[in-house]
Amino acid sequence: MVDLKGQYNTIKDAVDKSVLEVLDSTAYINGPKVHEFQKNLENYLDVKHVIPCANGTDALQIAMMGLGLKPGDEVITADFTFAATVEVIALLQLTPVLVDVDPNSFNIEVDAIKKAITPKTKAIVPVHLFGQCANMEAIMELAKEHNLFVIEDNAQAIGANYTYSNGKKAKAGTIGHVASTSFFPSKNLGCYGDGGAIFTNDDDLAHTIRGIVNHGMYVRYHHDVVGVNSRLDSIQAAILDIKLKRLDAFNKARQKAANAYDKAFETHTDIITPFREGSEDNHVFHQYTLRVLNTDRDALAKHLNDNGIPCGVYYPIPLHLQKAYQDSRYNEADFTVTNQLVKEVISLPMHTELDDNQIEFITSTVINFVNS
Ligand SMILES: *Cc1c(COP(=O)(O)O)cnc(C)c1O
């Protein structure tokens, strides 16, 4: 699905040099590389505060802790996403409220959020799925009206733009009250281990969160709040700083591959290519996900694998049907889109090193199977 080795080969000299500098400095934790990367990411995103941490799941949890959400508070999120999103809500003893998604963008459906709001609702977590922002303008308006926090799960859309209806643009993860991201190796900005970060424009919240990631300490050995231990190490920061400089180029390579896929599938009515809202820079294609109609999706996946083509099904089971997250209040009629998508979606290889021959082989193998 990804070609981490091919990408590493293109940046090997810079990465190796930077990593060796960290080894030589022995500043393995909270070294200058972490601070440099933090500043560079703040500039890139045009956000006031980036707080690095250990992974994207921690980032989400810490964002929720920072907002002071309390057990029993309801948090609305999408039924069609990676489990990390709902997991941290449940871990903090908040009440997850899963809602359906839009059939085109696969992102959380604004009307479904509206319907799910109760007096206990405290936050909405839109996930910018597969590399494209949820409908943030409508979500922020709704949040304002009901006095709710918005936490963007930006693990899949770093570098994507969001375009407001007036044409103004902002980077994904800088629109809500706070956002989380992941630097897992296969993400668009991935390190060579685990990493994550929290973004916010709120000075007070940033201060609170900086203490939470460090055992609740604001002054050494004074523990004012219950915190966690969640750090980005200096070696990962050194790698991320090299890759951040190339993030736009990496995302462009993904968009180019997506355009080639789109073109190959253009005339095939049973193959629905990813919907894109607005201009090309709005979608950074963490995944290139098709919907296949009148086709046995699992048989297609097997056929691709038999031909040496990796593929993935993100996600095969709606979260509301997962054992850990079932809730008697849910009604199947409220999840018609997710229930359908889990049967139809298939994600093709998507990374920065795809070439025309690979794309031609992948698309013709898909088309031959769907047409047969
Ligand atoms: C990857 C991912 C996470 C979790 O990130 P980790 O770094 O693996 O903890 C959270 N949410 C979404 C949508 C993701 O894709």
Give a structural overview.
The modification N6-(pyridoxal phosphate)lysine is found at residue 187. This is dTDP-4-amino-4,6-dideoxygalactose transaminase. Keywords: Pyridoxal phosphate. The active site is at 187 (proton acceptor). The chain has 372 residues and is α/β, with parallel strands linked by helices. It folds into 2 domains: 4-99 and 106-244, Type I PLP-dependent aspartate aminotransferase-like (Major domain) (Aspartate Aminotransferase, domain 2, 3-Layer(aba) Sandwich); 247-371, Aspartate Aminotransferase, domain 1 (Alpha-Beta Complex). Helix content is 40%, strand content 15%. It is built from 12 helices and 14 strands. It has helices at residues 4-25, 32-45, 56-66, 84-91, 110-116, 136-146, 203-212, 234-245, 247-265, 297-306, 336-344, 356-371, and strands at residues 49-53, 74-78, 95-99, 121-125, 149-153, 161-163, 169-171, 178-182, 196-200, 217-219, 222-223, 271-272, 288-292, 345-348. The strands form 4 sheets. Strands 1-9-8-5-4-2-3 form a 7-stranded mixed β-sheet, with helices on both faces. A 3-stranded antiparallel β-sheet has the order 12-13-14. It is globular and about 70 Å long. Pyridoxal-5'-phosphate (PLP) is lined by residues 55-57, 81-82, 84-85, 127, 153, 155-156, 182, 184, 194, 196. Residues 55-57, 81-82, 84-85, 127, 153, 155-156, 182, 184, 194, 196 line the site of pyridoxal-5'-phosphate.
